[in-house]
Amino acid sequence: MNPSLSIYDQLGGAEGIRALVEAFYPRVQQNDVLAPLFPENIEPVMEKQYMFLSQFFGGPALFSEAYGHPMMRARHMKFTITDLHADAWLGCMAEALTDIRVDEPLRTFVLDRLTGPARHFVNSY
Predict the structure, then answer these.
(1) What's the DSSP call for residue 79?
(2) What span, in angstroms and rounded, lies between the C-alpha atoms of 31 and 34?
(3) What is the CATH architecture of 12-120?
(4) Helix 106-120 to helix 83-99 angle, to the nearest 10 degrees?
(5) Looking at residue 66, what is its pLDDT?
(6) Which of 35, 92, 99, 116 has the fewest CB atoms within 10 Å, counting from its CB?
(7) How far is CA 105 from CA 17, 38, 55, 109, in A?
(8) Are 8 and 84 in contact (CB under 8 A)?
(9) Are residues 89 and 35 in contact, defined by beta-carbon separation less than 8 angstroms?
(10) Where along the chain do its domains lie?
(11) What is the distance between the terminal CA atoms of the chain, rounded to a whole angstrom?
(12) pTM of the entire predicted model
């Protein structure tokens, strides 16, 4: 890890974030817990995730420029999200990070950064 670089840059910038999203969503679509929450046409979701993660990890504010403030919890409230969903989401993300060959300690750091938001989306117990 290079603390003088943003996570976005450490992940490879736009290409790295795109690769992460492209490795992540096939896993989501195959996950029995997560797949029912997502539309059959996953492309628009992937593009929003790319835009959000770019911004979240210190790259360009693509999501905010296109959609305004992320307000991610509010945007996810229409879905029933439990700890099981958060765990499954984080598991898919961990596998995607491995797929694109993100080395330690960056891999663990990225997952730790995503754990807070994943848990914040939980709205049903």
Answers:
(1) S
(2) 5
(3) Orthogonal Bundle (1.10)
(4) 160
(5) 84
(6) 116
(7) 17, 30, 21, 6
(8) no
(9) no
(10) 12-120
(11) 36
(12) 0.92
pLDDT tens string, the chain, 125 residues long: the values are 788 899 999 999 999 999 999 999 999 999 999 999 999 999 999 999 999 999 999 999 998 888 877 666 666 656 789 999 999 999 999 999 999 999 999 999 999 999 999 999 899 88
pLDDT recorded at residue 26: 97
Instruction: Count how many Cα atoms sit within 13 Å of the Cα of residue 69 in the half-sphere of its side chain.
Output: 3
- Residues, the chain, total? 125
- Of 21, 20, 38, whose CA–CA distance to 29 is shortest? 38
Strand, helix or coil for residue 35 = helix
Distance CA 62, CA 83 (A): 28
Q: What pLDDT does residue 79 have?
A: 76
Q: Which residue type, as a one-letter code, is found at position 92? A: C
Contacts of 29 (CB under 8 A, 6+ apart): 35, 38, 42
Q: CA 83: distance to chain centroid?
A: 16
